[in-house]
Write a structure and sequence with these properties.
- The structure is a homodimer of 438-residue chains.
- Chain A is an alpha+beta fold and 438 residues long.
- Chain A has three domains: 17-168 and 294-338, BirA Bifunctional Protein, domain 2 (2-Layer Sandwich); 169-269; 343-435, Rossmann fold (3-Layer(aba) Sandwich), CATH 3.40.50.
- Helix content of chain A is 40%, strand content 19%.
- In chain A, the strands form three sheets. The first copy, chain A, has an eight-stranded mixed beta sheet.
- In chain A, helix 14 links the parallel strand 12 (346-348) and strand 13.
- Chain A is elongated.
- Chain A starts with 21 loop residues before the first helix and ends with a helix.
- Mean pLDDT of chain A is 91; it is low at 2-8.
- At the A-B interface, helix 1, strand 1, strand 2, strand 3 and strand 4 of A face helix 1, strand 1, strand 2, strand 3 and strand 4 of B.
């Protein structure tokens, strides 16, 4: 198609956003459908919230850094001139989930098991493959303390990854309580706790020495910092178990991990206790996990229990556990295979005055579920129309020239081999289906 | 689930927006899928553009009234304090389509046949069932003058309506050229043309007298205004044909209508020339149509040819034809049938210490594609757990009490009849599939 100019120059999609053309969009839609079907099998229900929330609902929920990444919507009408915002685009699916529990509480089943797959918007710098509009794929159970709920989320995510074609993966499990227990053992005050864990989470990024240094800056004695870092970096379950032997909090954390491993035994070797896996986010309270997969950078999924978050978001006190599949990261790593491109089953050329007959045949073929295009250009030349059929990746082209029309027939051309068949008009649909192997 | 309060009171979704809970969302997703499948059969390709466009891309594209309905996004970071906007939420799918032609021109097939089904946002007053976030369902062919393209859109929309369960519908066809020809016959200057047509479009709303009055205000002589209104209101093809006999523009319009009726003969009586059907929008240039359906208020679909719009939106000069299915109106009119509600195939109760076995069975059943829930609550009482299974609309509940565990069996309970079957653990999946009739 001829390049068009827009406002004198080709306008682009806004920075950090993408237009999804057919092939890529079909691949994305198929991925979302596949994951949805898995979540449905686990009894999770779909939930869709508006693209934006009231600014007062999200304000103060994400911390300072995240708040600066909100896309805020200007007030409208006479209030527009105020330059003030009253709405903000969805930043994640979690705050909307907490809000929905407030709005619809009594209408929701208990526990509330929901999945949400849809775009969120963050005004991050659009670089390093980061987008400002991207799909998050979340599954959460709100209202259950049961470890079965934790295990169910893990299984659902594992099956979701497989549905996305990620086979060679491994769940790394840890527990916030075990990690806090370790800090207790070393006498690190709990008031330093979450910050310390956020720092420990950087081990893979900045290394042991830098992490120990940052812990010292946070007020942990140097020798203690080095010992804690060494324990975590060793990534040895036995070593951590030994350290936590006499610490009640730590032992509770180990019990959470063991229960998780017991209940997810069906993953057969694809789940393990990984003391080094810390997770940076503050809000986790119990078992936490991350999934690494061969061929994919970083984590392809992550989650855990967050029993205080719904209350912290302004909802009532409610236990919760959830996970998120990194669908954008997975889609970005997988290539669009050439045969993902969807062509036409049948391309109908249009020669002479046979349009009504062409549309009749098109309609009959579409009625059989086939994907059918008709030539809409201006050329009366067969070669040009067959070139169009080829561009459309058509398996067969139908030709209805003067000859064919006089004989009450059509020619069906196999676009791969060039082989042609003459077929009676009356029999056209059945013959084309036969040629397509239907 | 217990009502939660959010910020001290139950927060709502923003005014004019909706949360879609499971049953309704599944119905909406099924509707979108059904229409998409129809459009795919017609060789249209899906297109998804970002939720927002650059403000300079949309500014001046919609006219004054529509511009005041844009949701504008505040600049971010250090620019936030300026109170200025630089982005706007998508107002329709048409301006993004024109922009995409500018951005991706040479990568797009020619003609470019695309469908777009997704939310748009308008800051309308949220009343009369109008929403500020609603789904538009558009199909357009850009780059073809062929009447086949017009007919293809009509057929695709007709099949789309049927896929949505709208059976008893009728296409009303007219032509902008025929209507402009009629105005020429009466000596109404073309400079008054579009405004006059917008007024004529109000016939059903405000009646003949008021329309004639408004035409007079627009500068049409009173007698002429009354004559034009009478011709349109009569809704008689023969009368309009007679009037246009000697007017070249009018005759071209009639030819467009006749061609459309010829090419859409397959709709058998569900399409007709309707002189009274005018369509208010300025941008149509050729054949136009609207669809009325028994049981639905207003039009359930509409469309037409708009050969100058893409250029007017800043793209290059490109013929175009399209249609829009009123999917929100259709969904709002149809009731969610009780059996649209999706229940569980199997609800697994959890008694005693059988969780690992319960999860194993759950996994095996889910592996067979069944929708399976496990009890995640705290009650150890079977009656309470069966109540949960009932709330989940489960077809079968599985019970694994101490008895069953000792015998290596499970009990499968038909939740509708109360009938119970004892089944060996090893045979559980096969027996449950048999009971489900799979």
């Amino acid at each position: 198609m001829q390049e068009a100019t827009f406002m004198g120059q080709a306008a682009q999609a806004p920075s950090g956003t993408r237009d999804f053309l057919a092939d890529e969009l079909r691949r994305r839609t198929a991925a979302v459908t596949a994951v949805s079907e898995v979540f449905e099998r686990y009894g999770f229900d779909p939930l869709e919230t508006p693209a934006f929330e009231r600014l007062d609902v999200v304000t103060g929920k994400y911390g300072e850094e995240a708040s600066s990444l909100l896309f805020k919507i200007l007030r409208r009408g006479v209030h527009e001139a105020s330059g003030q915002a009253d709405l903000a685009l969805r930043y994640d699916h979690t705050v909307p989930l907490a809000r929905v529990i407030g709005t619809h509480g009594s209408k929701l089943p208990s526990p509330f098991k929901r999945y949400a797959i849809g775009p969120v918007w963050r005004a991050d710098r659009p670089q390093d493959g980061r987008f400002r509009e991207f799909v998050q794929c979340d599954v959460d159970t709100v209202g259950s303390h049961s470890p079965l709920a934790d295990a169910e989320v893990v299984y659902a995510v594992a099956d979701g990854l497989q549905a996305l074609g990620v086979e060679d993966f491994r769940f790394l499990v840890n527990s916030r309580e075990a990690l806090r227990g370790l800090l207790e053992v070393y006498g690190v005050g709990l008031e330093l706790g979450d910050g310390v864990l956020a720092t420990l989470d950087k081990l893979d990024k900045i290394g042991e020495e830098a992490v120990a240094g940052e812990l010292a800056e946070r007020g942990v004695a140097t020798a203690t910092a080095e010992a804690v870092v060494a324990d975590i970096a060793a990534d040895s379950p036995d070593r951590l178990r030994a350290k936590l032997e006499t610490n009640p909090r730590g032992k509770q954390g180990l019990a959470e991990i063991d229960r998780m491993l017991e209940l997810t035994g069906g993953l057969e070797g694809r789940i393990a206790f990984a003391p080094r896996m810390v997770r940076g986010l503050d809000y986790y309270t119990g078992a936490i996990w991350e999934v690494e997969a061969v061929g994919y950078p970083g984590a392809v999924a992550a989650g855990g229990r967050y029993d205080q978050l719904v209350a912290a978001l302004g909802g009532s006190d409610m236990p919760a556990v959830g996970g998120s599949v990194g669908i954008e990261r997975i889609l970005a790593t997988q290539e669009t295979a050439a045969d993902d491109r969807r062509g036409l089953d049948v391309a109908l050329t249009a020669l002479g005055h046979s349009e009504a007959g062409t549309l009749r045949l098109a309609r009959a073929l579409r009625g059989r579920g086939l994907r059918v295009g008709t030539y809409l250009g201006t050329s009366g030349k067969l070669a040009k129309q067959l070139k169009w059929a080829d561009d459309q990746r058509a398996r067969f082209a139908v030709i209805r020239g003067a000859d064919e029309q006089a004989a009450g027939e059509i020619t069906v051309r196999d676009m791969a081999t060039g082989e042609q068949h003459r077929v009676a008009d009356d029999d056209a649909v059945a013959q084309i289906e036969r040629l397509l192997g239907h």
